[in-house]
Protein backbone atom coordinates (compact mmCIF):
# COMPACT_ATOMS: atom_id res chain seq x y z
CA UNK A 1 0.00 0.00 0.00
CA UNK A 2 1.06 3.54 -0.63
CA UNK A 3 0.00 7.02 0.36
CA UNK A 4 -1.59 9.70 -1.76
CA UNK A 5 -2.05 13.44 -1.61
CA UNK A 6 -5.31 14.68 -3.05
CA UNK A 7 -5.76 18.32 -3.98
CA UNK A 8 -8.84 20.34 -4.86
CA UNK A 9 -8.35 23.12 -7.41
CA UNK A 10 -10.69 25.86 -8.57
CA UNK A 11 -10.80 25.08 -12.29
CA UNK A 12 -10.46 22.12 -14.63
CA UNK A 13 -8.54 24.37 -16.99
CA UNK A 14 -5.56 23.93 -14.61
CA UNK A 15 -5.25 20.22 -15.49
CA UNK A 16 -2.55 20.57 -18.19
CA UNK A 17 -0.36 22.90 -16.11
CA UNK A 18 -0.56 20.64 -13.06
CA UNK A 19 0.23 17.54 -15.13
CA UNK A 20 3.24 19.30 -16.68
CA UNK A 21 4.48 20.44 -13.25
CA UNK A 22 4.15 16.92 -11.85
CA UNK A 23 6.10 15.39 -14.73
CA UNK A 24 8.77 18.10 -14.52
CA UNK A 25 9.11 17.26 -10.80
CA UNK A 26 9.91 13.63 -11.59
CA UNK A 27 6.50 11.96 -11.29
CA UNK A 28 5.48 9.49 -13.98
CA UNK A 29 2.10 9.51 -15.72
CA UNK A 30 1.17 6.39 -13.71
CA UNK A 31 1.87 8.21 -10.39
CA UNK A 32 -1.00 10.67 -10.57
CA UNK A 33 -4.68 10.84 -11.46
CA UNK A 34 -6.50 13.91 -12.73
CA UNK A 35 -10.25 13.57 -12.37
CA UNK A 36 -11.97 15.39 -15.25
CA UNK A 37 -15.73 15.69 -15.52
CA UNK A 38 -17.43 15.33 -18.89
CA UNK A 39 -20.86 16.62 -17.85
CA UNK A 40 -21.49 20.34 -18.01
CA UNK A 41 -22.99 22.14 -15.03
CA UNK A 42 -24.04 25.77 -15.32
CA UNK A 43 -21.79 28.44 -13.81
CA UNK A 44 -24.62 29.64 -11.59
CA UNK A 45 -25.19 26.21 -10.02
CA UNK A 46 -21.47 25.64 -9.42
CA UNK A 47 -21.02 29.13 -7.96
CA UNK A 48 -23.97 28.75 -5.60
CA UNK A 49 -22.69 25.38 -4.36
CA UNK A 50 -19.19 26.83 -3.90
CA UNK A 51 -20.49 29.85 -1.99
CA UNK A 52 -22.71 27.68 0.21
CA UNK A 53 -19.84 25.40 1.28
CA UNK A 54 -16.97 27.89 1.45
CA UNK A 55 -18.90 31.03 2.50
CA UNK A 56 -17.15 33.38 0.11
CA UNK A 57 -18.06 35.44 -2.96
CA UNK A 58 -15.95 33.49 -5.49
CA UNK A 59 -17.55 33.09 -8.91
CA UNK A 60 -16.54 29.89 -10.69
CA UNK A 61 -15.88 29.78 -14.41
CA UNK A 62 -15.91 26.01 -14.83
CA UNK A 63 -15.96 22.89 -12.68
CA UNK A 64 -13.40 22.31 -9.96
CA UNK A 65 -10.54 19.85 -10.42
CA UNK A 66 -9.32 17.04 -8.18
CA UNK A 67 -5.81 15.58 -8.51
CA UNK A 68 -4.35 12.59 -6.63
CA UNK A 69 -0.63 11.85 -6.53
CA UNK A 70 1.00 8.66 -5.23
CA UNK A 71 3.85 9.44 -2.83
CA UNK A 72 6.36 7.10 -1.19
CA UNK A 73 8.93 9.33 0.52
CA UNK A 74 8.81 12.50 2.63
CA UNK A 75 10.66 14.31 -0.18
CA UNK A 76 7.88 13.42 -2.63
CA UNK A 77 5.28 14.64 -0.12
CA UNK A 78 7.09 17.99 0.13
CA UNK A 79 7.36 18.25 -3.67
CA UNK A 80 3.66 17.63 -4.18
CA UNK A 81 2.62 20.05 -1.43
CA UNK A 82 4.81 22.77 -2.93
CA UNK A 83 3.50 22.06 -6.42
CA UNK A 84 -0.11 22.16 -5.19
CA UNK A 85 0.54 25.46 -3.40
CA UNK A 86 2.11 26.90 -6.56
CA UNK A 87 -1.07 26.01 -8.48
CA UNK A 88 -3.37 27.57 -5.86
CA UNK A 89 -4.69 24.39 -4.32
CA UNK A 90 -7.82 25.09 -2.29
CA UNK A 91 -7.63 22.04 -0.03
CA UNK A 92 -5.29 19.04 0.37
CA UNK A 93 -5.74 15.63 1.97
CA UNK A 94 -2.92 13.24 2.83
CA UNK A 95 -4.24 9.68 2.88
CA UNK A 96 -2.01 6.86 4.10
CA UNK A 97 -2.30 3.13 3.43
CA UNK A 98 -4.50 3.23 0.36
CA UNK A 99 -4.21 1.18 -2.79
CA UNK A 100 -3.57 3.48 -5.71
CA UNK A 101 -6.02 1.56 -7.88
CA UNK A 102 -8.73 2.32 -5.27
CA UNK A 103 -7.90 6.00 -5.62
CA UNK A 104 -8.98 5.84 -9.26
CA UNK A 105 -12.56 6.12 -8.04
CA UNK A 106 -13.38 9.70 -7.11
CA UNK A 107 -16.45 8.46 -5.22
CA UNK A 108 -14.21 6.24 -3.07
CA UNK A 109 -11.93 9.19 -2.26
CA UNK A 110 -14.89 11.39 -1.39
CA UNK A 111 -16.10 8.70 1.02
CA UNK A 112 -12.65 8.45 2.67
CA UNK A 113 -12.35 12.25 3.04
CA UNK A 114 -15.88 12.47 4.42
CA UNK A 115 -15.23 9.75 7.00
CA UNK A 116 -11.98 11.43 8.02
CA UNK A 117 -13.72 14.79 8.45
CA UNK A 118 -16.43 13.19 10.60
CA UNK A 119 -13.86 11.43 12.77
CA UNK A 120 -12.02 14.71 13.34
CA UNK A 121 -15.26 16.32 14.48
CA UNK A 122 -16.08 13.47 16.84
CA UNK A 123 -12.56 13.47 18.28
CA UNK A 124 -12.57 17.20 18.96
CA UNK A 125 -11.95 18.07 22.61
CA UNK A 126 -15.02 18.83 24.69
CA UNK A 127 -15.71 22.53 24.89
CA UNK A 128 -17.25 23.99 28.03
CA UNK A 129 -19.40 27.01 27.43
CA UNK A 130 -20.22 29.33 30.30
CA UNK A 131 -23.30 31.42 30.00
CA UNK A 132 -24.27 34.35 32.13
CA UNK A 133 -25.98 33.09 35.25
CA UNK A 134 -29.15 34.50 36.65
CA UNK A 135 -28.41 35.52 40.20
CA UNK A 136 -27.73 38.58 42.23
CA UNK A 137 -27.11 41.86 40.51
CA UNK A 138 -26.18 45.35 41.63
CA UNK A 139 -29.71 46.15 42.80
CA UNK A 140 -29.56 43.72 45.71
CA UNK A 141 -29.12 45.50 49.03
CA UNK A 142 -27.57 43.90 52.08
CA UNK A 143 -28.39 45.13 55.54
CA UNK A 144 -30.62 48.07 56.38
CA UNK A 145 -32.00 50.28 53.70
Question: What's the quick description here?
Answer:
The protein has helices at residues 15-24, 43-54, 74-86, 106-122, and strands at residues 2-9, 32-35, 65-71, 91-98. It has 145 residues and is an alpha+beta fold. Strands 2-3-1-4 form a four-stranded antiparallel β-sheet, sandwiched between helices.
Q: How would you portray this structure in words?
A:
There is one protein chain. The protein has 145 residues and is of the alpha+beta class. Helices cover 36% and strands 19% of the residues. It has four helices and four strands. It has helices spanning 15-24, 43-54, 74-86, 106-122; strands at residues 2-9, 32-35, 65-71, 91-98. It has a four-stranded antiparallel sheet with strand order 2-3-1-4, with helices on both faces. The protein is elongated and about 90 Å long. The N and C termini lie far apart (80 Å).
Give the topology, please.
Elements: E1 2-9, H1 15-24, E2 32-35, H2 43-54, E3 65-71, H3 74-86, E4 91-98, H4 106-122
Antiparallel strand pairs: 1-3, 1-4, 2-3
Beta content comes to 15-25%
DSSP strand count: 4
- What's the order of the H and E elements? EHEHEHEH
Count of separate DSSP helical elements:
4
- Please state how the strands of the largest beta sheet are arranged side by side: 2-3-1-4
Radius of gyration: 23 Å
